[in-house]
């Protein structure tokens, strides 16, 4: 079948960054995530971008944070087989496939309508995995979700693209609509946002950032329904053993300090 993918906006196109990063990781002899579906999707679309020059050292962060979110979701679903899962700004990620959600779980991948149209062409249907094409800042999409089941919400690489007020409203709508659950996402702190301006490989992203950066603990001030379960600091996680030697050494040193660890990628995990 010939693919006829919709033209994507610059923000929508950021889905290729995470997808190609996970695909690159999957091609390594010792992958951190091993997302072979990401690789299959990149090959199927023939996507190439000269700005994305992945190396083993640069892809570990994307692969590792996806792995941490998968682990959180997998544990939640094991405890709540009647759960729903929601992936906010899912892009072309196939998390439900990676974590192999059981048929008792309904999983919802939410992204802009054109991204969802691309997903529908590229990713085979799977029972109990649904797509919702919507702008997350629009309150209406949430009404189609069951409110009375435990909910696992994840967002990978999304929050920098939401203005602070939109992120706060989205979190509030989620905790108002859903009875109980957990939410986990990677935090874009002010250091990450500033560092992106200086890194030649990430500078092209800066005009798309709507967030000035925030910390894991800011979220609980903005939404008292949320309790912080854990700040998962990637530099302190076991996958560091798989980093290339120079990065591993630097990371082990950074991990000795909590402040330095927080400057790296943090996956914040909350309950409500
Ligand atoms: C960096 S990509 C990450 C995609 C995916 N989570 C992954 O890990 O591959 C960010 C995604 O957020 C989506 N996004 C950003 N703002 C959004 C909004 N207001 N509503 C819906 N999706 C949004 C983009 O379309 C894009 O797919």
Automatic annotation (TrEMBL):
Keyword flag Cytoplasm: no
One Gene Ontology biological process: methylation
Molecular function via GO: methyltransferase activity
Top-level taxon of origin: Bacteria
Entry keywords, A to Z: Methyltransferase, Transferase
Protein name as catalogued: Methyltransferase
Native source organism of the sequence: [Actinomadura] parvosata subsp. kistnae
């Amino acid at each position: 079948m010939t693919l006829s993918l919709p033209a994507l906006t610059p923000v929508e196109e950021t889905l290729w960054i995470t997808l190609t990063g996970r695909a690159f990781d999957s091609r390594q002899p010792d992958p951190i995530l091993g997302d072979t579906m990401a690789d299959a999707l990149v090959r199927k679309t023939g996507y190439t971008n000269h700005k994305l020059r992945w190396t083993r050292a640069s892809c570990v962060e994307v692969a590792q944070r996806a792995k941490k979110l998968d682990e959180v979701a997998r544990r939640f679903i094991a405890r709540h087989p009647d759960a729903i899962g929601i992936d906010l700004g899912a892009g072309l990620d196939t998390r439900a496939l990676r974590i192999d959600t059981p048929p008792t779980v309904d999983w919802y991948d939410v992204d802009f309508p054109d991204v969802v149209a691309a997903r529908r062409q590229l990713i085979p249907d799977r029972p109990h995995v649904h797509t919702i094409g919507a702008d997350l800042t629009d309150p209406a999409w949430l009404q189609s979700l069951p409110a009375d089941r435990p909910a696992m919400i994840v967002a990978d690489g999304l929050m920098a693209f939401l203005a602070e007020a939109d992120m706060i409203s989205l979190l509030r709508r989620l905790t108002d609509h859903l009875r109980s659950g957990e939410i986990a996402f990677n935090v874009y702190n002010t250091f990450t946002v500033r560092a992106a301006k200086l890194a030649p490989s990430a500078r092209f992203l800066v005009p798309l950032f709507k967030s000035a950066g925030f910390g894991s603990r800011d979220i609980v001030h903005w939404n008292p329904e949320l309790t912080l379960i854990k700040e998962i600091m990637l530099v302190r996680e076991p996958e560091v053993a798989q980093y290339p030697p120079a990065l591993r050494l630097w990371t082990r040193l950074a991990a000795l300090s909590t402040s330095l660890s927080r400057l790296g990628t943090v996956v914040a995990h909350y309950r409500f």
